[in-house]
Specification:
Blueprint lengths: L1 E3 L5 E9 L2 E6 L6 E3 L4 E3 L2 H16 L5
Antiparallel strand pairs: 1-2, 1-5, 2-3, 3-4
């Protein structure tokens, strides 16, 4: 998991390279977004846990599969 510091520390999973950008996707699924690699850093353990818990909560509410 990576953090996009240009978008308020948004956590995403690396999906690939698109030209000069990296593609990230929210942990719980959703629309990918592109970010310059200079604005990306590895997610801290707490950030990873927060993202996973948010996904599990959304799943329990039936918002994601």
């Amino acid at each position: 998991m990576l953090v996009d510091t240009s978008r308020g520390d948004r956590v995403g999973e690396f999906r690939g390279v698109a030209g000069p950008y990296w593609s990230l996707r929210p942990v719980g699924g959703g629309r990918e977004w592109e970010v310059e690699p200079r604005f990306v850093r590895p997610a801290l353990l707490m950030e990873q846990l927060r993202a996973r818990i948010a996904r599990l909560n959304a799943r329990s509410r039936g918002e994601v599969l």
